[in-house]
């Protein structure tokens, strides 16, 4: 049996067509030695542990990559749901400290993406124009090493929220910034791997497919948390969070180790070949000394990247719409549906809005394989525009249609956000080809996209409340500083008098925001040219850059 296992591991074939290393997976000597010892000690009886190890070693790269989303989703959904309530209801944070913490967090949350992206990828930014051989295994190993450290640290930063260890205001500020720092490092390296592990659109959609699948599974932690959440007795919830964190640490450690095993051997073989043949290479005389590009020069190059500019314009509106739906979802339920539907139905709509985008994205990704990401995203914009127009014509009294529209509006909007990472990976390819970089600056480009689009998170509640106030003529909405949701507070004593105006204002806000967003996004998306033949040409050029370059050899 161990001979068959050794043969199976040594002849591991490429999984999902991902990355050059998948074609030539090495024998894992240490792992096989361990398996041999286990099998010798239990040769007289079936060993389920050996079968499990064998199965884990042979998991496709796309599955292991996608599982990293599970270990993030397990923690992040619980964090989003409970961190505000914990500091407000349990730790009794004051309003001033809360707003100071949120303001500092907003600034840090916007700046840390490009900062960490620059620190991660600045070594790849070179003005050398030719004679450079791109070494993919080393780049992938760099990302995996970062994930192997930052993943467990992200899990531990999650735990510091649930135990009071400092003044509530100080702890709130430090915990938010610490948690977001490690979350950003994990997200940047995980998203960068999407561009570094594969080049073809089919392979990248496969990677994204498993990420969405595992994210949906990770969202189940929100439902389990309801059973242990108790503001009066916090012990059970703390134990639950510790279990989640330890599971995440184990998952990050195992997944990154498995992926590193698949690329370390190829990287070592490549370095040995380069060392052996170093004296046989004739470097072209035209190759100049490598010069690192400064951040200012990189930004200048990015400002000339036409497709990048149109994409971030569209994505800024998308981020705005996603957070508008999140902020105003409870408001729409309260003023449009609360007196028409049961409490359980409202809770069901809220729960579906968290899980359905991940599951729905699985179907969207299958469409992307057949039609391309550009066509699918454009179709979702048209669908958003059409559904909003139908809802506008139907009016606010069609309760069942209103329920479907409120839920589908959030599901389709969140689903579009999940697809846009594939577009960013295409922009990474184009950036590499246009500027002839030494290696694709994947993490940095993801960071620059986040820098431009994250202000949409702040614009969503501000613009939404301003539009409703302008329509009704009264300042009847205000942002509740002690909550992550928008609350309605009529200022006049005769609240019932203004309820029809409030209901009508909520309805028009619900339908006109997606109509406006869809129209602007279709306008900007029509100017985006990185699709079809243009995209295929860019991918073929990047593929040619990743192939070994032919070099002249001295006559011996």
From TrEMBL:
GO terms for cellular component: plasma membrane. Its main location: membrane. It is a multi-pass membrane protein. This is Major facilitator superfamily domain containing 13A. The lineage of its organism: Eukaryota, Metazoa, Chordata, Craniata, Vertebrata. InterPro entries: MFS_trans_sf, TMEM180. PANTHER family: TRANSMEMBRANE PROTEIN 180. It is found in: Membrane. Keywords: Membrane, Transmembrane, Transmembrane helix. The chain crosses the membrane at residues 55-84, 146-164, 170-188, 209-229, 235-259, 308-329, 341-359, 371-394, 507-530.
């Amino acid at each position: 049996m161990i001979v068959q296992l050794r043969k199976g591991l040594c002849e591991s074939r490429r999984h999902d067509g991902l990355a050059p290393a998948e074609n030539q997976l090495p024998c894992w000597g240490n792992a096989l030695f361990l398996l041999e010892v286990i099998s010798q000690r239990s040769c007289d009886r079936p060993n389920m542990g050996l079968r499990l190890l064998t199965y884990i070693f042979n998991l496709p790269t796309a599955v292991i990559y996608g599982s990293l989303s599970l270990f993030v989703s397990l923690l992040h959904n619980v964090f989003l749901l409970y961190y505000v309530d914990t500091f407000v209801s349990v730790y009794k944070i004051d309003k001033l400290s809360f707003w100071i913490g949120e303001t500092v967090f907003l600034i840090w949350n916007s700046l840390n993406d490009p900062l960490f992206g620059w620190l991660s990828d600045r070594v790849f930014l070179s003005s050398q124009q030719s004679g450079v051989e791109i070494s993919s295994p080393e780049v992938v190993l760099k990302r995996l090493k970062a994930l192997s450290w930052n993943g467990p640290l992200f899990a531990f930063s999650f735990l510091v929220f649930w135990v009071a260890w400092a003044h509530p205001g100080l702890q709130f500020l430090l915990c938010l910034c610490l948690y977001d720092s490690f979350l950003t490092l994990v997200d940047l390296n995980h998203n960068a791997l999407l561009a570094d592990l594969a080049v073809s659109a089919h392979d990248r959609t496969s990677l994204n497919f498993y990420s969405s699948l595992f994210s949906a599974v990770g969202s189940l932690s929100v439902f389990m948390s309801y059973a242990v959440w108790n503001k009066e007795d916090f012990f059970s919830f703390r134990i639950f969070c510790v279990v989640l964190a330890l599971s995440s640490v184990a998952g990050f450690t195992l997944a990154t180790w498995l992926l590193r095993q698949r690329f370390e051997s190829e990287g070592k073989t490549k370095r040995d070949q380069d060392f052996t043949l170093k004296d046989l290479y004739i470097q072209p005389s035209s190759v100049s000394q490598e010069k690192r590009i400064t951040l200012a020069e990189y930004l200048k190059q990015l400002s000339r990247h036409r497709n990048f500019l149109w994409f971030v314009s569209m994505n800024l509106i998308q981020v705005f719409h996603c957070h508008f739906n999140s902020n105003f979802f409870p408001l729409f339920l309260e003023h449009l549906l609360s007196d028409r539907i049961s409490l359980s139905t409202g809770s069901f709509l809220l729960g579906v809005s968290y899980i359905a985008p991940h599951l729905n994205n699985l179907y969207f990704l299958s469409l992307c394989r057949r039609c391309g990401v550009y066509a699918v995203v454009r179709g979702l914009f048209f669908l958003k525009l059409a559904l909003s127009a139908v809802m506008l014509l139907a009016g606010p009294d069609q309760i069942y249609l209103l329920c479907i529209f409120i839920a589908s509006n959030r599901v389709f909007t969140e689903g579009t956000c999940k697809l846009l990472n594939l577009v960013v990976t295409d922009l990474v390819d184009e950036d590499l080809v246009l500027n002839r970089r030494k290696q694709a600056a994947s993490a940095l480009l993801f960071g620059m996209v986040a820098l431009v689009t994250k202000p949409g998170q702040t614009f969503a509640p501000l613009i939404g409340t301003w539009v409703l106030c302008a329509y009704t003529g009264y300042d009847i909405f205000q942002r509740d500083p002690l909550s992550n949701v928008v609350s309605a507070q009529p200022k006049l004593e005769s609240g019932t008098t203004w309820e029809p105006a409030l209901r009508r204002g909520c309805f028009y806000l619900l339908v006109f925001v997606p109509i406006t967003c869809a129209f602007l996004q279709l306008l900007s998306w029509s100017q985006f040219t990185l699709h079809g033949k243009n995209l295929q040409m860019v991918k073929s050029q990047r593929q040619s850059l990743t192939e070994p370059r032919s070099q002249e050899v001295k006559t011996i």
